[in-house]
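Ex. 9. Protein: UDP-3-O-acylglucosamine N-acyltransferase.
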Amino acid sequence: MKFTAEQIAGILEGEVVGNPNAEVSKLSKIEEGTEGSLTFLANPKYVNYIYETKATIAIVNKTFVPENPVQITLIKVEDAYKAFSKLLEFYNQIKLNKTGIEVPCVLSETAIHGDNFYLGAFSYIGDNVVIGKNVKIYPNSFVGDNVVIGDNTMIFAGAKIYSETIIGSNCTIHSGAIVGADGFGFAPNENGEYSKVPQIGNVIIEDNVDVGAGTTIDRATLGSTIIRKGVKLDNQIQIAHNVEIGENTVIAAQTGVAGSTKIGKNCMIGGQVGIAGHLVVGNNVRIQAQTGVGRNIKDNETLQGSPALGYSDYNKSYVHFKNLPKIVVELEELKKKNN
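Predicted structure tokens for UDP-3-O-acylglucosamine N-acyltransferase:
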């Protein structure tokens, strides 16, 4: 699909400087621009590329004044970075705006869906599923019985949504994600063996949540595992049974949260963090990568280390840890002198 500079400027409420009929059909980095591509300049470090890029159109800030002649058509906007992000979102909507039901697939007669529904080939939709408007479910996906999916939600190829799961509006579930699998519940018996504890709860995902590729969210033993609105989960995260994650919390890849832990609002949790079960993590908490959390965390704390320490305490301790060999030598010398 091709767009002219004039059309793009209309979408972005920008001003064309150059050829309004210049056409683009792809996007590129400014340093890798090719003919027929659209790029942007927001970082002053890349300003030299504006004079040599092969791209056809560039989005720039209104304040940008070329110091040398430019061949490229410019679209001037208030904020080039935000404008380009808006354009990416617009482009993505067009690219992903599929409708219709492909074959082969299984769509239960008792399932209902709204307008502009897309169901990719080799997908399965179970009994009594309720699907909102503009929902896109890509090929090889599984949606179990009694699932509810809100408007404008996308479920990418190969995702598995187990029965009873509730997903809100404007959510994205990426490929390979598994929502609603059994929690890790086993009870030891007198023979030292483990018997499975039935997991009969569900998962509730509220509006505007992103679930990354390969991430797993387990159903509750009883009640619900809850992902509150605005939460963003990276790839390959494990959320155990009965966990609750507060609004607008973001969690990076390979983090694991054990059962029944409650995480507050607006937290930022780095990659490879381990959080033990039955804990309470407050609001606005910052947890650095590879931290191990084994205690309750108050609001506004920043943690690092395993077991976790306050961030400033960790940094102070780490200075001494790095100097430990030197400190040991000095202690040995002092012992010799005292002897």
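Check your answer against this statement. The CA atoms of residues 106 and 124 lie 5 Å apart.
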